[in-house]
Specification:
The complex is a heterodimer of chains A (about 500) and B (about 130).
Chain A lengths: L12 H9 L3 E5 L5 E4 L1 H7 L7 H6 L9 H8 L3 E8 L5 E12 L5 E10 L1 H23 L3 E5 L5 E4 L1 H7 L7 H6 L9 H8 L3 E8 L5 E12 L5 E10 L1 H44 L2 H29 L6 E5 H19 L2 E6 L5 E5 H20 L8 E8 L3 E8 L6 H6 L15 H11 L3 E7 L3 E9 L23
Helix pairs in contact in A: 9-10, 11-12, 12-14
Chain B lengths: L6 E5 L3 H13 L3 E5 L2 H10 L4 E4 L8 H10 L8 E5 L2 H9 L9 E4 L4 H12 L1
Parallel strand pairs in B: 1-2, 1-3, 3-4, 4-5
Helix pairs in contact in B: 2-3
Chain lengths: ~500, ~130
Amino acid sequence: MLPAGSRGGAMDSRERQYFDAMPCYLTVQDRDLHIIAANRRFRDDFGEPEGRHCYQVYKHRSERCEICPVARTFRDGEPHESEERVRTRAGAEVAVLVRTTPIRDESGATSAVMEMSTDITRHTDLEERLRRSQRRYRLLFDTVPCYITIQDRDLNVVEANRAFQEDFGNGLGRRCYEVYKHRTEACTPCPVQETFDDGEPHTREEVVTSLRGTRQHVLVTAAPLRDGDGHVTGVMEMSADITQVRALESRLTQLGMLIGTVSHGLKGLLNGLRGGMYLVDTGFTKGDTDRVQKGWETVRRNVARIQSMVSDILYYAKDRVPNWEPVSAAAVANDVCALAAPRAAELGIRLTTDLDPAAGEFEADVQAVQSMLVNLVENALDACRLDARKPDHEVIVRLRGNADRVQFEVADNGIGMDRETREKAFTLFFSSKGTGTGLGLFIADRIAQAHQGRITLSSEPDAGTSVGVELLRRRPAGPADGEGRHPHPEDPSHA
Amino acid sequence: MPDAAKTVLVVDDDPDARAFLTAVLADHGFATAEAKDGVEALSAIARSAPDLVALDISMPEKSGVAVYRKLREDEGLKHIPVIIITGMSDDFRSFISTRRHIPPPEEYISKPVDHEQFVGAVKKLLG
C-alpha cells in the first residue's frame, strides 16, 4: 500500500501499474484534501492534480463540500460512501459512487485516505428514467376515471387508485367484497378469483355501494399480474361506473313498456267510445232517449279518461318543473271533488269532504296537484266499484293544515290492498285495476316529490284505503325549483 | 228469434265494455249475463253454464287466462265456446300456442270491438 505522506513515489512499478489500471477514478488525499496521488483514468479526465484540492478538481469549487466522505474517514478511521456528481475538465457531468478507505501509518493512525469513485452515470440515468416512468404510471393509475385495485389471492386490496380511495375510503388491507359491497363473504362468482384460477381476464357487471351510500352499477374487469416466471402474483381489477348507461337503458325499457301499456289502455278506452257510439246510434234508431243518454255519457267518460291518460303520459315523458303559485288548499280540494262528482254519482258512491277551514293557502303547481288528487279520487272510486262485499261505499277527501304543511287525504272503504299490492302501488306500470295504465300513483308520487312533499299509503284488504299527501306550505328554496330535481325512482343509484 | 234461448256470459272489468257487448247481444236476440272479474265469472258459470263466454284477458282478481284454463280443463264445461276479447290478443295467442294441452279458443276479437264482427262470431259459434 501507499506509505503515508507519499506522492506515490513509494509504489513500485507493478503497484503503479495496478493503480493506474483500476477502471475507476482513484486518488489518495491528505488531511487537507490535497490529492497526493491519482491513477491514469483520473488524470485523463481531470488532468494532473498537482497538489490541488479534491473539491477543486472534481467539483470546480473553492471550498470543501459540506459532507465529505474523505474527511469523515480521517475523523473516524472508517470507510465511507456517498453519491456525487463531478465534472471532468472537458465539462462532462459524471455521476459517481464514492468509496473511501483509510491508509494507516505504522502507529495505526490514518495518514491518508484512498478515494475510489466509480462512474455510475448510466446507472443513475436509468434510475431517473425508471423513477419518471413510475411517476407517470402512478399518475395514470390515479387519474384514470375508473376504480382500480390490485388484489392478492385472499382478495385483499393491496393497492388502490385515487378514485377508489375517494369513493370507498382507504381499503388497503381489507377484502374487496367488504369495501365494495359491505358483505362478509366473497361474491360468487368473483372475476378476480376466476382470474387467479385460470390466469385469464374476466368481466362481470356488479352493483357496489360507496362510502356515501350511493349505489353504482360497475363493469368489472379482472386482469392477471404475472412475475418474471409467468406466475400470477396478483390481479388488477378495474371497475368502470356504468350507472348512467343502466339508468338510460332502464328508461328506454320503461318507454317501451309505456308504449305497450298505453296502446293497451287506449284500446280499452276506444272500446268504451265505440260502445258509447253504438248506444247513441242504436238509441236514435230505436227512438230510445235513455239509451242515447247512456251512450253519450259513456262517450264523455271515455274522452275524459283519454284526456287524463294523455296528461299522465306527458307528465312522465317530460320532467316538469313545478309552476309555483299560491292557492287556497280548500279550493283545490273542492275543485277535485267537483271533477270527480259525476263519476261518483254514476257509480252510486258517496263522495264527501272534510276540510279544515283554517287550512289556508299554500304554494304549488296547482294543475299538477289537482291532477294528482283527481287521480287519487279516481283510484278510490275504482276501489269501491270493484268491491262487491259492502252495500254502501264512500270516498272522503280530507284537508288539514299546520304552520309548515298542508295535508290532503283521500280515504275509501273499497276493496283495499294486500301487502303485495301496497308495496307495488307506486311502481311504474303496476295496476291492480285491470283497466289501469299503471301510471297514476307513479306520477302522483313524482308530483309529490317535485314539490318536496310525500305520499303515504295505508290499506287493508276489504277494509279500504287511505292515501295521504303532505305538501310544504311554502315553496322550498332552491332544489325542487328546476335544476336539482329528485332522482327518478327508477334510477338504479336511487335504491 | 231463433237464438233467444242462448245465453252469452260477458266477462270484462270495464263496465263500459260490458254495457257495450250486452247491448249488442240483446239487440240481436241473445240473453246475457255479466261478470266483472274471473272470480265472478267462475261462480256465474257454476250457477248456470252459459252457451258462450266472451272473455276479457287482463282483469283483477282471477285473470281471464285462469278462467279460460278452468273452462278447458273441466269436462263438463270444455264444450262451451269462448271468444277472447282483449287489447292484448297477441300475447294471449302466443301464450296459448306454447301450451299444447290447452286447446285454443274458438275465436279472438281485439279491442276496440267491431260489433258486427262480434255478432257474426257469436252467431257462427251458436248457429
